[in-house]
Specification:
- 52% of the residues lie in helices and 6% in strands.
- The chain has 672 residues and is mainly α.
- The strands form four sheets. A five-stranded mixed sheet has the order 1-2-7-4-3, with helices on both faces. The chain has a two-stranded antiparallel sheet with strand order 5-6.
- Helix 15 packs antiparallel against helix 21 and helix 21 runs parallel beside helix 25.
- The longest helix has 32 residues.
- The protein is globular and about 100 Å long.
């Protein structure tokens, strides 16, 4: 029996118009390389007409329309399956009519042969009509003509024609067989495995071509060996110069899309805010928070907890006078504590951490702690240790290989243990609140949360639980202490470097506030130079260069790229805060970046130290208030005296994995 390849059938059996045959392609070997490129539409119409005839005849009579009975029987086989599928709930709804079935069969025959012809049909996802089928398969040009019969192809198909994927794959495989091979030679199991592997590789390649470009990644390690962990922002800057503002890197097995520059970050976080509103999941934080904190949660949990936190902080005075009075009171305690150093040089970092932490304590716990309180000092020490452990290489490896690192010793294990101690501390305070609270008069954030839990008792899916209260409380501490205290600490170092700037700020303080009255937020609008200095401190130090990681919450199209759901996003802040067009000489500290020519304050859309969009820092208003009142209170009462000549002060940051920190220093506070 003369055996036939699929391309033989698609030419000899479809009754093509004579005008196509007249082109001189008598040899069936020539067909795939010519007729699809020259007469694709006519070929499509011929196939479609043939299929419609087969369906009609099978439905109405037994008449044969073309000379190849085997091909007609093959199409009937698929048609039988299709009509059976019309009556089943599992078959695609769009193929549940005779018209759609005709289109379906036309696509199968046309595409399987067109693929072999070298025509690019990758953009036409015809297999998406079929349940559980992968994207379009692309077959390479053949090396040898195959010898598979129609009977063998049909018999190889699961349930006689279940999927065009199988048809196309079996046919493509036949093109690479040696002369006179048989299906029995390889075995159906081997062929099936080859098909699966080939399609997996093809699908992966197809998807990757549409995603943002990036450097070639190594197995397991990804691009970690190509990046400088001591200065990741600089490594990413070099990659952006090569791959553009949207590119892909792999840290270990995890794929990350990096957004580099103001325009692309604004487009993602503001213009497509919903798509990019997910929070990137870091296993070291997931292990403790379990997706229940204000900053670390996602979906409905995040929406409800964030809405509650913003409302409660506002009700307790964020942006209102009551919180302002608490900050003024804490600033007074800080000033007196500094005064007691009697001009002896010291590192002010721990003083600033205590002061800023007490603001959070007053909001969350209802009262501030004495600076010598043992429980307070234990809490601060645990959080401070964790900030150091967070930058350890073992902790970062935990984020990419959590299963392995779970069993290995290192700083990450100490961080996990510290988190458990912090959770125990917070749980004890929650228990005390449960015993002493008055639902009609909430004292603080915890009381308000417990009241919300009472309101949600009838809701079996409530997001307000003791666990989410503990996580949210810790979230507020982490977000509300390190950022503000480090910014103040860095700012005092910069002002030592530039005594002339310190002098101008003090002159403005003396003119607007004087030496006796406490600074208040109403003063800021009359102090444009001081406001510009604070903004420039935040811009210059670039505290969180990589930003807090985001994710896309669904498959997302972004600048003609495809970003799969749950892909982690790094919307970098460094290229925005150090943009040379918006801020000339961005590496130089210059309050003029935020001043107009007439000395008034100048706003900038590029000022994003708190990020932007739906995940912008919930405590931004509180942080702005703390920075202004604490800094002006210190400079109102003291002049900073460095222990070295001001020109020798190094204000370049200590770059860690997550943050930029000031170099350790000591300073004397000389009373004014």
């Amino acid at each position: 029996m003369v055996q036939k390849a699929m391309k033989d059938l698609t030419y000899s059996s479809l009754c093509f118009p004579e005008e196509i045959k007249a082109k001189g392609m008598d040899s069936k070997e020539d067909i795939p390389y010519y007729y699809y490129r020259d007469d694709g539409i006519k070929v499509w119409e011929a196939i479609k007409s043939f299929v419609e005839n087969v369906i009609h005849i099978y439905y109405e009579s037994d008449e044969v329309v073309c000379e190849d009975v085997e091909l007609q029987a093959f199409v009937k086989d698929i048609y039988v399956y299709g009509m059976r599928g019309v009556k089943s709930s599992g078959f695609p709804k769009m193929i549940r009519t005779r018209e759609k079935l005709a289109e379906y069969l036309t696509v199968i025959i046309f595409t399987t042969s067109a693929q072999h012809a070298g025509v690019n049909f990758g953009q036409y996802d015809w297999c998406s009509w079929i349940p559980n089928a992968p994207p379009t398969m692309r077959c390479p040009p053949p090396t040898e003509k195959g010898t598979v019969t129609i009977e063998q192809i049909v018999e190889s198909l699961p349930d006689r024609g279940r999927s065009c994927w199988h048809l196309g794959a079996v046919w493509a495989l036949s093109q690479f067989q040696d002369s006179e091979p048989t299906m029995e030679l390889l075995g159906m199991t081997t062929i099936f495995l080859l098909i699966c592997v080939s399609c997996l590789l093809l699908v992966t390649t197809w998807r990757n071509r549409k995603q943002p470009p990036g450097p070639i990644a190594l197995p397991l390690a990804g691009n970690m060996l190509q990046l400088n962990p001591k200065n990741l922002p600089e490594s990413l800057k070099k990659l952006s110069e090569k791959y553009g503002p949207v590119f892909t890197i792999r840290l270990g097995p995890r794929k990350i899309v990096v957004l580099y520059g103001y325009d692309v970050v604004k487009e993602a976080l503001i213009d497509q805010a919903d798509d990019f509103s997910g929070r990137g999941k870091l296993p070291i934080l997931e292990r403790h928070f379990k997706g229940s904190g204000v900053a670390t949660s996602n979906g409905e949990t995040w929406k409800q907890l964030r809405r509650f936190a913003l409302t409660t902080l506002r009700d307790f005075g964020m942006g209102k006078r009551s919180i302002e009075e608490r900050i003024q009171e804490e600033a007074h305690f800080l000033v007196e504590r500094i005064r007691n150093t009697h001009e002896e040089p010291f590192n002010p970092g721990i003083f600033l951490i205590h002061a800023v932490s007490n603001i959070i304590c007053s909001i969350v716990f209802g009262d501030r702690f004495d600076y010598e309180d043992k429980k307070f000092l234990t809490l601060i020490n645990l959080l401070d240790e964790n900030r150091k452990y967070q930058n350890a290489i073992q902790t970062q490896l935990y984020n990419f290989f959590p299963t392995l690192m779970e069993f290995l010793p290192g700083p990450h294990q100490k961080m996990i243990k510290n988190n458990e101690e912090v959770d125990k501390f917070i749980s004890e305070i929650i228990a005390q609140h449960q015993k002493t609270r008055d639902p009609t008069c909430p004292r603080d954030f915890i009381d308000a949360f417990l009241n919300k839990m009472d309101q949600e008792k009838g809701n079996g899916h409530s997001e307000f639980t003791v666990e989410s209260l503990s996580s949210s409380t810790l979230d507020l501490f982490l977000a509300g202490t390190a950022t503000t205290s480090t910014t103040l600490q860095y700012g005092l170092l910069i002002l030592q470097k530039y005594p002339e700037i310190q002098e101008k700020v003090q002159k403005e303080i003396d003119g607007v506030i004087g030496r006796d009255r406490r600074p208040c937020m109403a003063d800021r609008s009359q102090m444009p130079y001081t406001d510009a200095v604070i903004h420039e401190i935040q811009r210059f130090i670039d505290f969180i260069p990589l930003n807090v990681p985001h994710t896309v919450i669904k498959d997302t199209k972004f600048r003609n790229y495809f970003i799969p759901k749950d892909t982690m996003i790094f919307p970098l802040l460094t290229p925005i805060l150090h943009d040379s067009k918006e801020f000339p000489n961005p590496e130089k500290f210059d309050p003029g970046h935020f001043l107009n020519a007439n000395g008034t304050f100048k706003k900038s859309d590029f000022f994003m130290p708190f990020s932007a969009g739906k995940r912008i820092c919930a405590g931004e208003g509180l942080a702005r208030m703390e920075l202004f009142i604490f800094l002006t209170s210190i400079l109102q009462n003291f002049t900073l005296k460095p222990v070295v000549h001001h020109k020798d002060i190094d204000i370049t940051p200590v770059v860690t994995v997550m943050t930029n920190k000031p170099r350790p220093y000591e300073v004397s506070f000389v009373p004014r």
